[in-house]
Design brief:
Elements (H helix, E strand, L loop, with lengths): L8 H10 L7 H8 L4 H13 L3 E3 L5 E3 L2 H9 L3 H16 L7 H13 L3 H17 L3 H14 L5 H10 L2
Antiparallel strand pairs: 1-2
Helix pairs in contact: 1-2, 2-5, 5-6, 6-7, 6-8, 7-8, 8-9
């Protein structure tokens, strides 16, 4: 029987961060990893920076240095890993508290969509757009619907909402 070796922490870390897209923080990594990883995390992040796989940003987050590296790691995930890690990323973002900004709503919707929960993703975007419209922020509502159309290109209601709001 051919037994696969246990994945290394570094290998797992790449899988955890790839679903977080742009700007993954130490806290987000911990939430997606679902483990107490503090001791190992600093050493591995430092190693990945030294190998020029990721870059630290001024805001304390990290980005993959090359899109090809990010794509390769992302494509190596199994379907179950995709679903699970995106679900955990959406949960982490939802638990951050504070105001749900435009960018945060879109990020949550994206991860919910990728985690196999498109109805919840659409609900979040629609609610955010409706709330923006209720307070008179038509531009924000339009922006949310337009970005939602990027995530849900086959949705038939979004173009109608965009058209309606453009007339206001």
């Amino acid at each position: 029987m051919n037994r696969q070796p246990e994945p290394t922490f570094k290998h797992n870390l790449k899988k955890w961060v790839v679903v977080l897209d742009d700007g993954f923080s130490r806290q987000a990594i911990g939430a997606v990893a679902q483990a107490d990883i503090e001791q190992k995390l600093d050493a591995v992040l430092k190693e990945l920076v030294e190998k020029q796989l990721i870059e630290p940003q001024p805001d304390g987050t990290y980005h993959f240095k090359h899109g090809l590296t990010e794509s390769t790691v992302y494509e190596s995930l199994t379907r179950q890993q995709h679903l699970s890690l995106h679900r955990l990323a959406a949960k982490y973002l939802q638990e951050q508290g504070g105001e749900l900004t435009y960018a945060l709503l879109i990020d949550i919707a994206y991860h919910l969509m990728k985690s196999g929960n498109p109805l919840r993703a659409m609900e979040i975007v629609s609610t955010g757009a409706q709330q923006a419209e209720e307070v008179g922020d038509v531009e924000r509502a339009l922006s949310l619907y337009r970005r939602a159309l990027d995530i849900f290109p086959n949705d038939k209601t979004l173009p109608l909402e965009i058209e309606r709001l453009e007339k206001i």
